[in-house]
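Figure 6 in text form: structure in, sequence out.
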């Protein structure tokens, strides 16, 4: 068997037979003074680790599923070359499973008085702030017999933002918005409309839209047209209570709700409406108010990054009171919550009238696509029981949705992939009907 590099060196110094791979250092040093001297020299020639300096730079944020590169600059102020193994430690959720070893460990050589840069590539698997733990470095001598080791705190934070996967729907929704906003005027005035222009009467137009004063000033009959009103107030309310922690597919319901809220916020801000955000369970988890159209989406994304479901029952009365304080004037309140019977019937319905008296209310909920698949199951006894359970669950959700509609609430119930575009369509329909 061929010896390793260390074993060959020890054999050359007469410390052990060539075939031995792992020496007993205590016995070797006791019987072989030349080896002891070689080890002492190797240790002395290893660059000291305490005098090293570290500076971080690079990305401070990244969307979930994307990579973030953090650069670590290592400066060797000593007069000895640094030959080292370095581990840049981050939380486990900073990497894809199985990639931590290859991503966080580096080999480097830094000549005396010089610096080198290494890049640690993160690929976070969870939202929120990921903070660097410590840098551990092991400095070897030229023979690699002994090493110096030490750790340094080099702080750095990377904020992992929501992925906003529904952004792909934004161009089509903006196209529909442009059709509503001035290009397709209506003749009927509604609560959420404003005067657009005058045009000549066409047979079949509603006679109530005739502007008699304008008609008296010209030779033809003039009618008024209206368009959806701008500068409306949209309050997005995220329920971060226990029901938002339920997983649908690979992610909690809260993640699908946030994605839908981001698409609606992007669309509403382009429509000239003001968008605010409230995240609540038993207390306020996030609040974004008074942002300009260009700043509202980055502010919402940043506020949502650190939101996590709380395993507590949502206080519906507290949520309602906080929403009313946040939106003192008439607004569209979009409540992203559950349609489960118990939380709605015992919590939301008793206080819902306080919201609907002053505001338009839209309730959006994430449906589980697995329930629909279960409802179509057939062929075995277990499949029939699953279908019956799924049908019962769907009937309960439909009953709760009907109760909300009887209170004047618009209800959106869709799977995670469809919730964002369906919610955007509901907003556009309200805007077209002048109900905002």
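Output sequence:
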């Amino acid at each position: 068997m061929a010896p390793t590099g260390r074993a060959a060196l020890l054999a050359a110094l007469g410390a052990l037979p060539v075939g031995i791979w792992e020496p007993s250092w205590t016995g070797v040093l006791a019987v072989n003074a030349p080896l002891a001297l070689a080890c002492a020299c190797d240790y002395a020639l290893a660059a000291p680790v305490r005098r090293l300096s570290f500076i971080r730079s690079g990305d401070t944020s990244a969307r979930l599923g994307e990579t973030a590169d953090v650069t670590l600059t290592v400066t060797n102020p000593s007069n000895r070359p640094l030959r080292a193994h370095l581990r840049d430690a981050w939380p486990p959720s900073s990497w894809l499973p199985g990639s931590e070893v290859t991503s966080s460990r580096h080999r480097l050589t830094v000549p005396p008085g010089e610096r080198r840069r290494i890049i640690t590539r993160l690929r976070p698997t969870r939202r929120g702030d990921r903070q660097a733990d410590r840098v551990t470095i092991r400095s070897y001598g030229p023979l690699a017999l002994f090493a110096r080791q030490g750790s340094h705190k080099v702080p750095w934070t990377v904020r992992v933002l929501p992925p906003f996967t529904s952004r792909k729907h934004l161009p089509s929704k903006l196209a529909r918005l442009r059709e509503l906003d001035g290009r397709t005027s209506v003749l009927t005035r509604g609560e959420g409309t404003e005067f657009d222009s005058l045009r000549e009467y066409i047979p079949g137009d509603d006679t109530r839209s005739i502007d008699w004063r304008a008609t008296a000033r010209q030779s033809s009959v003039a009618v008024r047209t209206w368009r959806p009103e701008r500068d409306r107030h949209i309050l997005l309310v995220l329920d971060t209570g226990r029901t938002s922690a339920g997983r649908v597919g690979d992610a909690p319901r809260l993640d699908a709700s946030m994605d839908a809220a981001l698409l609606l916020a992007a669309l509403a801000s382009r429509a000239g409406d003001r968008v605010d955000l409230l995240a609540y369970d038993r207390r306020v988890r996030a609040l974004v108010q008074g942002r300009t159209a260009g700043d509202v989406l980055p502010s919402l994304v940043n506020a949502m990054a650190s939101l996590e479901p709380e395993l507590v029952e949502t206080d519906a009365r507290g949520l309602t009171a906080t929403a009313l304080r946040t939106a003192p004037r008439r607004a569209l309140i979009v409540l992203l919550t559950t349609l489960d019977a118990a939380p709605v019937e015992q919590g939301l319905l008793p206080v819902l009238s306080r919201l609907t008296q002053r505001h338009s209310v839209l309730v959006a909920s994430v449906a589980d696509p697995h329930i629909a698949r279960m409802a179509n199951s057939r062929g075995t006894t277990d499949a029939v029981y699953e279908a019956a359970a799924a049908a019962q669950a769907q009937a309960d959700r439909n009953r709760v949705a009907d109760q909300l509609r009887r209170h004047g609430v618009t209800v959106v119930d869709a799977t995670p992939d469809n919730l964002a575009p369906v919610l955007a369509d509901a907003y556009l329909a309200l805007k077209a009907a002048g109900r905002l």
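Caption detail: The two ends are 82 Å apart (CA to CA).
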